[in-house]
Structures are given as structure tokens and as C-alpha cells.
Design goal:
Blueprint (H helix, E strand, L loop, with lengths): L1 H33 L6 H20 L2 H22 L9 H23 L10 H6 L1 E4 L4 E4 L1 H23 L1 H11 L1 H6 L4 H26 L7 H15 L4 H22 L4 H15 L12
Helix pairs in contact: 1-6, 1-9, 1-10, 1-11, 2-3, 2-4, 2-9, 2-10, 3-9, 6-7, 6-9, 6-11, 7-9, 10-11, 11-12
Length: about 300
């Protein structure tokens, strides 16, 4: 019985790690390119979730169509915020950008609370997820496979691979990497770094929106849920290495495994403690994270 519980926890931990990876991906991307610690990251995810919920319930009747519209809305919000707010203070050091992000976090939370109150909200479970839900049986053990967890994992891997391809193989990605490495040198080579920052923020909010919809289909969410997922994002990117795309995927898997395996061994009360204890151990051995760079220029 104990073996069955451990195997169930291992499988679910891996699948949950996929969700954690996409939760942390946007934060890792924006830090890697701009050096900005976006403490409004979780609130942007929840904002996208609420947009998708309203569009699906009131207008489209389809989560997929609502998601596509929401992606465009979030990209536009990212363009406006970066172009008219963050770009004006990003050259003045880390503190002004953190204050801007903090202000955006407070603003988003309170606007959402004003419109939706403190009630729990959910997004409908996709039909595909319900068809995947199954009991996997073998001669030695049985375990339940969650359709939502499987979809979250697959989507997370696809998004991480797509973002890594963009960063590594496209001219836009090369411009982003040049900007991340050395802003002055990139500008001398004709790269408009402020424009790159703006496009990076648009991409980040698109990723955050996808993560938010996956969260809404898996768990109940509230207007102030952003803080909870911000903490998870911090854990993921710190384990994987700030600014590393593949490291974010690995960090999500490690955190998901640590939490659910810790829950199976020590009890559910120690789930979160187990995850962040592993994070502290990794930081003790590798302070920059598993795949992080030692310093940023």
C-alpha cells in the first residue's frame, strides 16, 4: 500500500510540476531579459483567468475561444504597461520597477475584488480532461490519472519548448538575448532595447494568461489568489535558475515532486514545507539555481 501511495505521488508530482513550470515561466523570462522581479506576476495570471471566465460565461460559451480573445487582451495590456509605465523607470534601477510592480499588484487585486468580491470562482473542466480521468491498473498497483494534470503537463511542456525555440532560434530571440547580456552593446548594434522589453512583456502576459486558465480549470481561484501563485513562481525560478527557460521546467518538476512526495511521506500538512525545504537545500549547494547564470551583465 505504501508503495502504491509513493508511485501515485510521484506521478502526480511530475504532472503538477508541469503546471508549476508554466506558472514560473513568465517570471523567469522577464527577469532574464529585463532583470525585473515582477511581483505582480501572480496577479496578471489571475487577471487573465477572470477575463477568460467572463468571456466564456457571457459572450463566447467556449473556453478555447475565450482564451484566444483573452490572450490578445493580455498582450495589449502588457504593451501598454511596459511601453507607458515600466520603460519610463527601468533605467533608474531595480527599486522603481519593484515599486511599479507592487502598485500594479495592489491595483489588480482591488479592481478584481470590486467587481467579483471574495467568492471562489472556477473554470469548467474540459471534456478532454474528463475523458482522460482514469484508473491505471497494473498487476502490482493501481493509481488514478488526473485529466487536468495531464493536460497541464502537456501544455506546459509545449509552451516551454516553444518559448525556448523563440529565444534560441529566431531573430527576435537573438535580440532578446543580446539585450539581456548587455544593453549598451545591443543598442550599439541597432537593437531597440525598449521595444524588446515591450515585446517581452507582451509574451510574458500571454504565458501568464495560459497559466491562469490552467489554474482556473484545476483549482478554485479568488481575487487575491495571485499572491499564492507568485510564491510558487518564486520557488520554481529560484530552483531552476533565474532567467533559464529549461531551468524553469526542471524547477517546476522538482518543486511538484518535492511537495507531493513530502506529503506522501510526512503527511499533507508538510506538503508546502517539503517543497521549500528542497529549494533551500538546492540553494545551499547551488546558490544560482540548477541552470542559472552566476551573474547578469
Amino acid at each position: 500500500m505504501q508503495t502504491q501511495i509513493l508511485i501515485q505521488s510521484f506521478v502526480n508530482g511530475l504532472l503538477l510540476g508541469g503546471l508549476y513550470a508554466i506558472i514560473g515561466l513568465g517570471m523567469s523570462l522577464i527577469f532574464g531579459i529585463m532583470g525585473m522581479t515582477n511581483i505582480a506576476h501572480g496577479d496578471f495570471m489571475i487577471l487573465g483567468t477572470f477575463f477568460c471566465m467572463i468571456l466564456a460565461r457571457q459572450f463566447t460559451g467556449s473556453i478555447l475561444l475565450a482564451l484566444l480573445i483573452t490572450l490578445a487582451i493580455m498582450a495589449a495590456i502588457g504593451f501598454l504597461i511596459q511601453n507607458f509605465v515600466v520603460n519610463r523607470v527601468i533605467d533608474k534601477g531595480a527599486e522603481p520597477t519593484i515599486l511599479v510592480a507592487f502598485g500594479l499588484s495592489v491595483l489588480i487585486q482591488n479592481v478584481l475584488f470590486w467587481f467579483f468580491g471574495a467568492n471562489a470562482q472556477t473554470l469548467p473542466t474540459p471534456d478532454l480532461a474528463r475523458s482522460i480521468d482514469t484508473l491505471v491498473s497494473t498487476p502490482w498497483f493501481n493509481f488514478t490519472l488526473s485529466g487536468n494534470f495531464v493536460i497541464n503537463f502537456v501544455v506546459a511542456v509545449v509552451v516551454v519548448v516553444a518559448v525556448n525555440f523563440i529565444i534560441r532560434k529566431t531573430s527576435f530571440g537573438r535580440a532578446m538575448r543580446a539585450t539581456a547580456d548587455n544593453v549598451a552593446a545591443a543598442e550599439l548594434m541597432g537593437v531597440s532595447t525598449k521595444r524588446i522589453y515591450t515585446y517581452a512583456m507582451c509574451l510574458t502576459l500571454v504565458i501568464s494568461c495560459i497559466a491562469g486558465v490552467l489554474i482556473g480549470q484545476t483549482y478554485a481561484f479568488y481575487t487575491f489568489s495571485g499572491t499564492e501563485y507568485l510564491i510558487i513562481a518564486f520557488g520554481v525560478v529560484v530552483i531552476g535558475g533565474m532567467g533559464s527557460i529549461i531551468g524553469t521546467l526542471i524547477g517546476g518538476l522538482v518543486l511538484g515532486l518535492a511537495m507531493l512526495m513530502g506529503s506522501a511521506v510526512f503527511g499533507t500538512a508538510y506538503q508546502v514545507l517539503s517543497g521549500y525545504a528542497v529549494m533551500l537545500i538546492i540553494l545551499t549547494v547551488r546558490p544560482r539555481g540548477l541552470l542559472g547564470n552566476m551573474t547578469r551583465k
